Task: structure prediction
Amino acid sequence: MLALPIKWIPVKLQFLEPEECIYGLNFDTEQITCGFYLTNFEQIWSCELTSKELFEKARELGLEGLNDNRLIDLFKTIDENIPQKLDFELEADQSITASVDFGLKWSFKLVVNDPQQSINFLTKLNFQNFANLSHLQYQNEKLKENLGVKDAYIRFLELNFKHSHGDDAMVKYKKNNNAVVNSIEKFDPVEWERRVNKEYAKERSKLPNKKNWRLDVENSIFFNGIFANQNYSSVAKSLFSKSNTTQAITSKKRKNSIDVPTSMQSKSNTSAITHNDGTITNNSDSPKPKRKKLGQL
Result:
């Protein structure tokens, strides 16, 4: 079995029972292989194509002279048209045809997996969820660290504001924004987790079990986990490559930018203004507009 997709999409197929399904397409640009997978969590249907099979299928559709890069571009187009232009159809042999029609109609023939294939698929899917959960936990801890840093800075500004202006404005702000007072106080991880758990339990307890099950599936697959297949080295290489490219572009823009000479800035700041009464004043002598107050008091 090939690597599973890291992006899954929910769909209801009325010709299946249960009808709630998820599907995903994965195109490996290095190996030039493709896998399309569909499951309703009781059965799995899949179509896996090697590089040779992909080129043969392209030729059958009249696409001659394709190389690896053009085939990659073709599958980018296919991916961009999913799910908007994707249709599923149950065939007489119980296979399922998934067709993407974007002027060119590319079809995947999905066949039912045998028990061993199903076990392999569900094992990989479970490990994707474990990897995504680990990634989310890491993000969660980093977010808490950042909140701690911001809290320290906010308390520093708050203390200085009290010394210079008193605390009347802050008391008034909290009174007018009572609904978010807990959120603007110093972040307490234990209290935050307790409050969020209560809110989550309250919301989900209103829903029937089937709706909760569907929400759990949809919410988890909508997280596009770039580390889902645990290919940490290749993802890290890609991320650092993009970061270096962005920094290079930014550096080039700064290098090509033209600074306004200081002499021109001074001249601009002291430009003369002629008034209706004939008097002349420097721009620097003109009254400066008052600053607008920020925040809701």
Residues 5 and 26 are 5 Å apart (CA to CA). Confidence is low (pLDDT under 50) at residues 260-281, 283-289, 291-297. The longest helix spans residues 115-165. The radius of gyration is 30 Å.
